[in-house]
C-alpha cells in the first residue's frame, strides 16, 4: 500500500463515482477500478458496495476512510513543515480558532501580524474549544486559540485576554432587573442559553444559593447562543468578544458579576510537536505584552 492508493481511494469516496474520481485524478477509469480492487485484495476486505451509478462504503470502507484521510492529512502536514523549514519565514500557519472570536478579535490580530510578515499565509480551522484541543493533540493544527474553561495540562498555554461574561436577551427578560449588572442568582429562574462547558460552573453557583438553574438550551457554539438570543428565546450567557454576534437591536446586555464565572482567551501549542518558524513568530506575537490581558 502506498500514498497514491490512499489518494485514489479517498478521491473515489469523495466523488461517489469512479468515473468522476478518474477525471479528478486525471487517469482513465479502468486503471482506477483496478487499483481499488488491488487495494481491497491487499486489505482482505470489501471497501465498496458498487452500484450502477454510485458507489457506497461498506462498514470496513468507512473505518478505512477515516484512517486514510488522517494519514493523507498528516502527510500534507509533514510536507508543509519541511517546506516551511526550508523557506524560513515564508509559509502557512495552521491555526484553530473558536467561533466567538472568529469574526472579532482574530481579524485585528491577523491584520497586524500580516503587516509584519506579509508572506505568511493562514489555514484556519473553526470549531469549539474541545475540537481544537483534539486537533492540536493530533498535530492537525499548530496553534489553538480557545476559551476557558478546559483541561489541557499536556499543552503549553498562554492567557491572551480576560473578559467579562454577559447576560444578553430581549428586554422582557430583564424587566425586573434595573441595574446595569446582574448575577446568576438573579438569572437562575429565567430561561438560559449557554455553552455546555459552563454547565457545571453555573450549576455550582446556583446550588450554592439553593437554586436550580432553568437551562433552556445547552450548546457548543457562540453563534448558536447568539442566534437563539437574537430570536428572543431566552437569556444568552456569552463572553464579551461574542457580543458582535448579536444583531437584534433590542437586545439588553448586562455584565454578570460572579467570581467563578469568568472567561479567558488562550493560545495553546503542543510542546511535543515540531514548532515551525511560522508558529514561533505568531505565538510570540500573540503572547507579547501589548496583547496579553488586552
How is the topology of this model organized?
Elements: H1 3-15, H2 18-25, H3 29-43, E1 48-50, E2 55-57, H4 59-87, E3 91-97, H5 99-102, H6 105-116, E4 120-126, H7 129-137, E5 143-147, E6 156-163, E7 165-170, E8 181-182, H8 184-187, E9 192-195, H9 199-208, E10 215-219, H10 222-230, E11 235-239, E12 251-256, E13 263-269, H11 277-287
Parallel strand pairs: 3-4, 3-5, 8-12, 9-10, 9-11
Antiparallel strand pairs: 1-2, 5-13, 6-13, 7-11, 7-12
Helix pairs in contact: 1-2, 1-4
Give a nutshell description of this structure.
The chain is an alpha/beta fold and 294 residues long. It has helices at residues 3-15, 18-25, 29-43, 59-87, 99-102, 105-116, 129-137, 184-187, 199-208, 222-230, 277-287; strands at 48-50, 55-57, 91-97, 120-126, 143-147, 156-163, 165-170, 181-182, 192-195, 215-219, 235-239, 251-256, 263-269.
Report on the structure:
- It is a single chain.
- This protein is an alpha/beta fold and 294 residues long.
- The chain contains 11 helices and 13 strands.
- The protein has a 6-stranded mixed beta sheet with strand order 8-12-7-11-9-10. It has a 5-stranded mixed beta sheet with strand order 4-3-5-13-6, with helices on both faces. A two-stranded antiparallel ribbon has the order 1-2.
- β1 and β2 form a beta hairpin.
- The mean pLDDT is 87.
Amino acid at each position: 500500500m502506498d500514498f497514491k492508493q490512499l489518494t485514489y481511494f479517498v478521491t473515489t469516496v469523495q466523488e461517489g463515482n469512479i468515473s468522476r474520481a478518474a477525471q479528478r485524478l486525471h487517469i482513465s477509469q479502468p486503471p482506477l477500478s483496478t487499483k481499488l480492487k488491488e487495494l481491497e485484495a491487499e486489505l482482505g476486505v470489501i471497501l465498496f458496495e458498487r452500484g450502477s451509478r454510485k458507489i457506497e462504503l461498506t462498514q470496513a470502507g468507512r473505518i478505512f476512510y477515516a484512517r486514510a484521510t488522517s494519514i493523507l492529512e498528516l502527510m500534507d502536514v509533514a510536507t508543509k513543515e519541511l517546506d516551511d523549514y526550508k523557506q524560513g519565514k515564508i509559509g502557512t500557519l495552521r491555526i484553530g480558532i473558536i467561533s466567538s472570536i472568529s469574526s472579532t478579535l482574530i481579524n485585528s490580530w491577523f491584520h497586524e501580524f500580516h503587516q509584519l510578515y506579509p508572506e505568511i499565509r493562514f489555514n484556519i480551522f473553526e470549531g469549539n474549544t474541545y475540537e481544537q484541543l483534539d486537533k492540536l493533540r493530533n498535530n492537525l493544527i499548530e496553534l489553538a486559540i480557545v476559551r476557558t474553561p478546559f483541561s489541557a495540562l499536556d499543552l503549553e498555554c498562554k492567557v491572551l485576554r480576560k473578559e467579562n461574561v454577559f447576560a444578553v436577551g430581549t428586554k422582557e427578560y430583564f424587566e425586573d432587573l434595573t441595574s446595569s449588572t446582574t448575577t446568576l442568582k438573579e438569572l437562575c429562574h429565567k430561561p438560559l442559553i449557554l455553552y455546555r462547558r459552563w454547565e457545571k460552573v453555573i450549576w455550582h453557583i446556583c446550588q450554592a444559593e439553593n437554586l436550580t438553574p432553568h437551562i433552556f438550551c445547552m450548546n457548543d457554539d457562540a453563534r448558536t447562543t447568539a442566534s437563539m438570543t437574537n430570536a428572543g428565546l431566552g437569556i444568552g450567557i456569552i463572553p464579551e468578544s461574542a457580543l458582535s454576534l448579536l444583531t437584534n437591536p433590542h437586545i439588553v446586555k448586562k455584565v454578570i458579576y460572579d467570581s467563578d464565572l469568568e472567561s479567558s482567551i488562550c493560545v495553546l501549542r503542543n510542546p511535543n510537536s515540531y514548532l515551525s518558524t511560522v508558529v514561533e513568530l505568531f505565538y510570540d506575537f500573540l503572547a507579547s505584552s501589548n496583547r496579553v490581558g488586552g
